[in-house]
Here is the input.
Amino acid sequence: MSEKQGRGAESSMRRRHHSKRRRRGYILAASVTAMSLAAGQQAKAMPFDFLYSTTISPTTVEPGPGNSRLTQFSIPTTGPFSANPPFGSDIVVGRLAVTDLAPNIAYTDTYSVSFRIDVTLIGPDSGQTAVATFSTGDVGVGLLTGTVSSPGPLQPLIQSFNNPFTTPITKSVTIGGVRYEVSIDPTRAFTAPGTPTRGGTGSFGTFTFNVTAVPEPASIILIGIGSIGVIALSRLRKMN
Here is the structure.
């Protein structure tokens, strides 16, 4: 075999080898792309978004003869918010306000309230829901205590409410293969309501919790498949 023929045979072998690699690349890319599309359909809500609503009870409390009133407000469906780890999102799960009902007398009202907050998380795509419940009696959840007092007619009111949360608390719920942790940080979970004017209602206080997603293994696999698809397609383009 001449040198020219040898070079030709070698070149032909290289072309055949390259053609086989290209076909394998197409097959791999097609397979991974199909898997990635399927994964994308299941994982399209990721990053880990959620909507939520809350129910808080009791809604109103009037201690003693009813000189003042504490009102607690639930939160209607709102969002979406991001639960992406590691920080997630802080959400207001309830508001509370105090109203003076006896502007012309001196009084002192003492509050000691057992309360419950149901936090309903909602998947933005699936509409699936899960509820995390926090109530007086849970570890770290005490009574909502405080006082509202009036020194006398036309005198400014004096008010004080205490943080009912004493230790960090976390409860988990699962929606669509994703575990969400609803957490209470006592240092940030409670803002006391404002002192009302005589015969009026004070500014809102708030209950604020945190929601952070903890992906289940299946969700991590879906994300990984999508990443592999991107890498495979990128390599195929380079081969061509």
In short: The longest strand covers residues 89-100. Confidence is low (pLDDT under 50) at residues 27-45.
